[in-house]
Structure formats: C-alpha cells, structure tokens
Amino acid sequence: MNHTNASAAATQIPRAPIRHLVLVLGDQLDISATALDGFDPTQDCIWMAEVAQESEHVWSAKQRTTVFLSAMRHFAADLRAQGWPVHYVTLDAPDNSGTLAGELAKAIAACQPQTLVMTAPGDWRVLQDLRGAALAAKVPLDVRDDLHFFSTVRDFAAHAKGRKQLRLEYWYRELRQKTGILMDGKAPAGGQWNFDADNRASFGAKGPGAVPPPTRFAPDAITQAVIALVNTRFASHPGSVAEFGWPVTRAQALLALDAFIQERLPFFGEHQDAMWEGDVWLYHSHLACAMNLKLLGAREVVAAAEAAYRAGAAPLPAVEGFIRQILGWREYVRGIYWTQMPEYEERNALGATADLPAFYWTGDTDMACLRDAIGQTLRHGYAHHIQRLMVTGLYALLLGVKPQQVHQWYLAVYVDAVEWVELPNTLGMSQFADGGVMASKPYAASGKYIQRMSNHCKGCRFDPALSVGEAACPFTTLYWDFLLRHETMLTANPRMGMQLKNLARLSTDQRGAIVAQATRHREATAAVASAHPAGKP
C-alpha cells in the first residue's frame, strides 16, 4: 500500500456533528481494536494526535519517540487509504497545544461528536487526562476492553481476590488451562508447567556463535520525515536514530515475527539469560515493541510459537520460555498495574533516595556491563530482559536509587516502553519498591552473576570477586552493602536465607570495609550526578 503523509487530508471528514469520535492512541494501532467495532465512515471519525507531552513528561529518547510517531503516521495513512476519515494532528502543526487533553478538546469543538469511543489505554495518566477532557466538554466517553490481551483486568482482579500473595506461576497456569495453550488435554505439554531451569545457560568461552542478523527495516519517506522532525524538535533528548530500523507497519511486524520463529526461536530458550559484549540482538525476539504498539496480536505471536513446537521446529523449553513471557509475565504485570494504580507508582519499600547516575543517559562509565547495556540502549532503544533486570536495574537497586527515577529512565529509553508493562517490571520486579507485591524477593546479586552470564568482566578493570580495594567490582561492593543495609527486613524473607547466611560469615572488620567502600562509591557517583540536574547531561 502506498503511504501518504498523515497530515494530508486524503479522506473527507464527515460534517459536524458526527456520531462517534474514535480515539486511537499511539499504542493502539490495530484495525481490529474494540474502539473501531461498528465504525461507520459516513458518520464517524478517527482522532489521532502527536503531542510534545508524550515525549516530555519523561525525557523520551529519540528512538522511542520516532517509533511511536512513525507507526502512528503509517497507521493513519492505511486508514485513509481504505476511505476512513482521520482527524490527525501532527507534532509540528502550528496550533498544536502540546497535550492530548488540549487536542481532544479542540477536536470535540470541531467535530461535535455525540460520543467519544476508545479502547482502554495502557497508561493511567492518559486515561485520566482524556476522561477529564470528555467531562469538561460534557461528552460521553465509551471506554472498551482491550481484547489484544488473553485476559481482562477484571479476570486478574478476580484471581487476586482473597490471596495473601500474588505470584506469576499460579496466574500463568490458570491462563494455560483456560486457553489450552501448550496443554495436552488437562496436562501441560511435556509433563511440566515451567522449563525455566533449562533456560539459564551462559554462552561459555566460545560465545553465542553465528547469530542470525536482526530483522531491520530501512526508513521509508514517512519514517525519514519523522526522524528529521525528532532530531530537530527533540535535539537535546538522549540517544540516536542513526541506526533506526524497527517495524512501524503491520506488514513489517509480521515479517519480524516470521523471522523470529524461523531463525531464533529454536535457540532462544537455553541462552535467553546470557549476555555477550557488543552483541545486541542474540536470540531474542525483538517483538515487544510491535506487540505493545498493537501491530502484532499476542494471540498470533503465541500461536506461531506453539505451532513451531507442535511441528517439531523448536524445542519445548524454548517455546515454553518464550510463551511464558507473553501469556505469563505480560498478562501478570498488566493486572498488577491496573489493580494497584495510582498509588503503586509512588511506592518505595526500601526507602531508596539516591539520584540516578548521570551515566545512565550517556553510557560513560568504567563498568563494562553497564557501558555495553546503556550504550546499545541509547543506539537502538533496546536491551534484553537480563540486561534490564540484572545489569541496569540491579545496579540501581544496589546503589539505592529512588525507584521513581529508575522508572522514568526505563519509560524514556526503550522503544517497547508503555507504562502498564514498564512500571510493574521496574518498581516491582527490578527495584522491589512494592515490597513484594510483584516478586517474592529482591533480585540482588553480586558481580559474580554478571561474570557467570557474560564475558563483560573479562575486559573490565573491576574484579567481581573483590568487594573492597581499588579493583573491587562496584556490583559486588554494593551487593554486600545492600544486604547489610536491609538485613533486618530481609530476614523475614525465606528466599533470602542463603544470602543472609553468607552475610553472617563476614567479620566486623569486613563489614566496616565494605560499608566504607560503598559509601565512597556512592559519594563519587552522586558528585557526578549533581553536576547534571535531573540526571540530564
């Protein structure tokens, strides 16, 4: 299909007043979305708006802003090509108010709709803003379920009711049974629910081998125009779009899905937690961005993976591990988000107060693992789940960074970051700021974990075996300091028993030396951060 500039009025908008003004957000680019059920182009109109607010409420990186705006413009062009009217506001429109609520208010005045219709958004803040605009204009707002997911928030609330603790495994098994995915009758495929123990191997000394090249897409005219706009309008924002290649259309997303199933899924499982210096893509799917934009449906992605297993094209541990990320974690974090907000965002169970180090915006650090993970994040808007949880997230946890700052960084820099999925993963799983709602223990580890799962330590000036001294690894120092600072609280957690037994073996002198080294490291990091207000270089 030929795409035209989304700002061009390719289709006649029905004369006001119209029946339905259908709101389509940047993460709802699905022609089968519930908001479009019953759409009549003769009396309804679609509303889409690019606003600076969505790139500025967090310091959104250039890759993230580009992928959203380009995908939105492509989707609007597709809608117009089939004759559907679209009221589309571009970022550079001269009268753009800069906010979703402001642009919606203007569209309501121009179109005079009887009703506003939308699929439930993925962001609490956005829902409140749009509800407020509808209320101010005295126009009804019909918010419909997002059927892109396997479950509803109501389903999760019913699952959670009466439980003292929420745990992924029970929710995941419930959804497996409900959907029949990876089930052989009433039993799980392969006789067990979870193959996580088979999916924790490192690459070893030889590395990952001949990894297939990533599926990337050269920017077309629409994307090139967006890149130019982003480089101008958000010139000071972090990251680069020089290597932009994410799928921004449904057709591209389907090609990316097929390439993953054929080329990467068979090798995904065993090494899904492994890292390798300078190798960005490895055997991961790189599909989260397309899924969170709704260019791909969760059901079709899971169905493709299960079909590969049933056909003997991919081993069960790899397929189960991949499906668990979608049918399990993705559904679980969404349920946590919508049943815990808005208070959830402010939680800080560990009382963390440090500022996010400035190098999170530049990658300028002597720690090889952080330098590699942050560097690729700024270049591509991407890092795989272990780089996020056990490198960038782990360091922030051990350092004691205020979790809201960590959340804002993750939301800003990753192309797949939408708040419903990013916030629980960051505050809950990564930073343990919710005190155990999301995960059963803090994901605290020393530099030895990174050494075991990567080759980063081989070329790093720090030694993960050392906690004190000039060559001490900051991860290892801060790990023991973290246990010391939170020893009383962690004693009540049965999953921390082994780590606390190891802590008990440290002498008083060893403890004092670790605390002194951690304090010096924390002070040095804070001095650099203070030179850059809000962590922005």
Structure notes:
By secondary structure, the chain is mostly helical. It has three domains: about 20-145, HUPs (Rossmann fold, 3-Layer(aba) Sandwich), CATH 3.40.50; about 155-220 and about 230-340, Serine Threonine Protein Phosphatase 5, Tetratricopeptide repeat (Alpha Horseshoe); about 370-535, DNA Cyclobutane Dipyrimidine Photolyase, subunit A, domain 3 (Orthogonal Bundle). The chain is about 45% helix and about 5% strand. The chain has 20 helices and seven strands. It has helices spanning about 55, 60-80, 100-110, 125-135, 155-160, 170-180, 220-235, 250-270, 290-295, 300-310, 315-340, 370-380, 385-400, 405-415, 420-430, 445-455, 475-485, 485-490, 495-505, 510-530; strands spanning about 20-25, 45-50, 85-90, 115-120, 140-145, 185, 185-190. The strands form two sheets. It has a five-stranded parallel sheet, sandwiched between helices. Helix 5 (about 155-160) crosses helix 11 (about 315-340), helix 11 crosses helix 15 and helix 12 (about 370-380) packs across helix 13. The longest helix has 25 residues, at about 315-340.
Principal-axis shape: globular
CATH topology of the largest domain: Serine Threonine Protein Phosphatase 5, Tetratricopeptide repeat
Span from first to last CA?
A: 42 Å
Helix content: 40-55%
Oligomer: single chain
Q: What is the name of the CATH architecture of the largest domain?
A: Alpha Horseshoe
Total domains: 3
Question: In CATH's first tier, which class of the largest domain applies?
Answer: Mainly Alpha
How are the strands of the largest sheet arranged? Answer: 3-2-1-4-5
Provide the structure class.
Answer: mainly alpha
Rg of Cα set: 24 Å
The SSE string, one letter per element, is EEHHEHEHEHHEEHHHHHHHHHHHHHH
In what range is the share of β-strand residues?
A: 5-15%
Q: Determine the number of helices (DSSP H or I, runs of at least 4 residues).
A: 20
Mean pLDDT: 94
Low-confidence parts, pLDDT < 50 over ≥5 residues?
1-10
